Recover the amino acids of this structure.
């Protein structure tokens, strides 16, 4: 009898049968809780009409939830080829809705996937989550039709994404995210929900690219360079980090620190200062 998504064995049983264990070098922490994976999948806006790209499906716990929630197509990008016995079985049970790409998501050309519009939903590997997010923000700013990003991060990173000027967590990620999108934390995920159990708590962040904000951006890559430079030495005054700038031209004294600048000010600086 052919499997369906609902008739597949539990994720833990499929892992055991495949002899699969989480690998530290891939930053793997697997989520088995069906209530949580279902809640994450159902959080994807308009999922029944949306192609979903998932990075790091591992043993396909969230993948199965995305399919069960009604995603018409899921494209899973997985670096760990030892997951193939599990992912291929889930793909066979998906009725043609699941495609699997084995490779490094950081090196994947998302524009070449042949999808005009998509959402991203992932329990991101801890070691590459921030880099992936910055890449997706750059893609959205460049015109990629990313409808939404529903992503799991360490809670500390999640707070840095949604922070506002004046918050302790305000920094480079908050600036970039706020200039491109509208972001919020949907809910927390306890570390006890993972195998193996990480030392840190996690949270689900939803990031919705905002067309009006994107239209105002001229050079996100330069904004990224400036934020990286200034927040990289956040206790120093900006005039000491980037010398030779007429700060008064931007309504500044030069004695400010990165945390004193609003996201819109970074955008203004990036229009004239090229690093």
């Amino acid at each position: 009898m052919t499997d369906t998504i609902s008739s597949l064995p539990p994720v833990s049983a499929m892992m055991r049968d495949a002899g699969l264990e989480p690998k530290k070098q891939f930053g793997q922490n697997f989520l088995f809780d069906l209530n949580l994976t279902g809640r994450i999948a159902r959080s994807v806006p308009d999922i029944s009409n949306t192609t979903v790209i998932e990075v790091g499906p591992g043993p396909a716990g969230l993948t199965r939830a995305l399919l069960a929630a009604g995603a018409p197509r899921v494209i899973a990008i997985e670096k760990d080829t030892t997951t193939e016995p599990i992912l291929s079985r889930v793909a066979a049970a998906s009725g043609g809705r699941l495609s699997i790409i084995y490779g490094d998501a950081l090196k994947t050309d998302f524009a070449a996937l042949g999808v005009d519009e998509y959402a991203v939903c992932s329990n991101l590997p801890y070691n590459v989550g921030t880099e992936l997010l910055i890449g997706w923000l750059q893609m959205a700013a460049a015109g990629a039709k990313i409808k939404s990003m529903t992503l799991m991060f360490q809670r500390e990173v999640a707070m840095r994404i949604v922070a506002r000027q004046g918050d302790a967590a305000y920094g480079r990620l908050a600036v970039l995210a706020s200039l491109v999108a509208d972001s919020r934390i949907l809910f927390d995920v306890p570390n006890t929900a993972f195998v193996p159990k990480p030392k840190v708590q996690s949270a689900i962040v939803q990031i919705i690219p905002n067309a009006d904000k994107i239209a105002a951006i001229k050079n996100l890559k330069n904004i990224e360079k400036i934020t990286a430079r200034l927040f990289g030495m956040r206790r120093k005054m900006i005039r000491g980090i980037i010398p030779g700038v007429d700060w008064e031209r931007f309504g500044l004294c030069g004695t400010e620190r990165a945390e004193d600048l609003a996201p819109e000010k970074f955008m203004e600086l990036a229009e004239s200062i090229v690093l």
Residues 18 and 106 are 26 Å apart (CA to CA). The radius of gyration is 20 Å. The chain has eleven helices and nine strands. The mean pLDDT is 93.
